[in-house]
Amino acid sequence: MLGNSLLLLASLAGAILLLRRSEPLPETSRSHLQVGSLSLAFVAMAALGQLLPLPHNQDTATLQRLLGNLATYAGLPLLATAMLALAMGRHWSKAGWGRWLLALFALFELFRRMGLGDDYTFWLSLALAASLLIAAWLLPDHLSRLMCALAAPLLLLSLSAPKLMGSGLSDTALQMAQAAALLLISGSLLRHPQAARI
Question: Helix 117-138 and helix 94-113: axis angle, to 10°?
Fold first, then answer.
């Protein structure tokens, strides 16, 4: 409960701040922050789905699993991609972001049907951490670099702790690590010179 509450607060705060900061920006910079905000909204919905006092039945479990998958396999990759694209100075159209989101859905479904969901989660977490480290290396501001670099291992740990450490951490610890990573990524996005221009 504590972990999901922190995850909900961190993702909602980041989503609102990114969305508000994106409003006065030109379209080229705005899309990164809007995608980041949408990504964090996915995570917030998943955390909220775990916190609501819903009846314990198969429908509720399915809804919670769908929201969790949306956050993990679409939201987090979108957020890391937005961070990397902003750090590289690459600008995607809304259609490009939409195609990337559809590709993420397709990849998840492909690996799920092949029975490789756990392996996909592990390799995805490595890719996310690597993209955040590359973004950190490319960022111009030292504090942004530090925040992005610290977020990488936290996100990796939150998704793949059992595979990396053998014995897993508690769900609350993993959710707290992910909440911290989301706050750090949000802060790094907000500090980027293209996003900071108002």
Answer: 150
Q: Please spell the DSSP secondary structure of 71-127, one letter per residue.
A: IIIIIHHHHHHHHHHHHHT----HHHHHHHHHHHHHHHHHHHHTT-HHHHHHHHHHH
Contact in structure between 51 and 18 (CB atoms under 8 Å): no
- Residue 175 contacts residue 4 (beta carbons within 8 Å): yes
Confidence at residue 54, expressed as pLDDT on a 0 to 100 scale: 77
What gap in Å lies between CA 195 and CA 27, rounded to an integer?
A: 11
For the chain, how far is it from start to end, CA to CA, in angstroms? 37
Count of helix runs (H) and strand runs (E) in the chain: 9, 0
For residue 31, give the H/E element and its range.
helix 27-51
- Cα radius of gyration (the chain): 16
Tokens of 32: 């990164």
Tens digits of residue pLDDT in 21-48: 988 888 777 889 999 999 999 999 999 9
